[in-house]
Design a protein that fits this description.
alpha/beta; Rossmann fold; globular; single chain
């Protein structure tokens, strides 16, 4: 299928690894131009050295207003068509194992910057009567995960914001959706496996084996599979899909609307 993404411009946050890298590479393969955002600019320059004509780099932490301003400035010169909100998750922990410092920092890491950047960029998309906004969250927004209370809480908050924004701008040609990934072979899954291993007193390999066994398809997802779905949601083909939270989890969510 031709996704009709050639010459479209996108922002991809967290493009140096994991889902962000996979999505950025998929968009590049489809002929799109990508503004790559990450703290490690040298990693971006190395990984995307063969695609300099299709990429721009914004180096900096998305937790800083200066970086958000750089992103905003990078798309004001030329029309852009969409953005992928993506970043790492907060520390693991149960409710009683957290303190208010954990909650304050996790609000900044998981939720605040996304709202700030969305409020900066949504008006530009609305002005052009076209756009795609895609938030990468977690299956925890549909089924809370043990020992991940900070993720469970703030990622669910992002979904509430995204749904509200989607309704407000649905008639402006701009869609807002959320992808809720389950366990995938990305660096982010390592901390979950290690945390489970530590809590239960089992080896890393045993922890990973049990995690895979609990996935109905009996394997972890691949970032490239996830990226192909993301690319479709960022394409013109997805214009009738907005305000949705779509799982990509191998069937892990037990609810009937998983």
């Amino acid at each position: 299928m031709d996704l009709k993404l050639e010459n479209q411009r996108f922002i991809v946050c967290g493009a140096s690894s994991g889902f962000g890298e996979a999505i950025a590479r998929q968009l590049i393969r489809e002929g799109a131009h990508v503004v790559l955002v990450a703290r490690r600019g040298h990693v971006l320059r190395e990984k995307y050295s063969h695609y300099q004509d299709q990429t721009d780099i914004v180096e900096g932490s998305i937790l800083y207003k200066e970086t958000l301003s750089k992103i905003e400035k990078s798309v004001q010169k030329k029309t852009f068509h969409g953005i992928v909100f993506n970043a790492g998750g907060p520390p693991t922990g149960t409710p009683l194992n957290t303190d208010m410092a954990d909650w304050d920092s996790s609000w900044q890491l998981v939720m605040r910057w996304k709202i700030d950047l969305a409020l900066r960029l949504a008006p530009l998309l609305v002005k052009n009567n076209y756009g795609r906004m895609l938030f990468i969250e977690s299956q925890s927004v549909k089924q809370p995960l043990p020992s991940l209370v900070l993720s469970n809480a703030f990622r669910s908050g992002v979904v509430g914001f995204a749904k509200s924004l989607a309704l407000e701008i649905a008639d402006k040609g701009v869609t807002v959706n959320v992808l809720a990934p389950g366990s995938h072979e990305t660096p982010a899954i390592e901390r979950v496996i290690k945390n489970n291993s530590s809590l239960r007193g089992i080896t890393y390999d045993k922890s990973k084996e049990e995690m895979v066994e609990n996935i109905p398809v009996k394997r972890m997802g691949k970032a490239e599979e996830f990226a192909s779905l993301a690319a479709w949601l960022l394409s013109p083909h997805s214009g009738y899909v907005t305000g949705q939270t779509i799982s990509h989890d191998g069937g892990s969510i037990k609810g009937i609307f998983g």
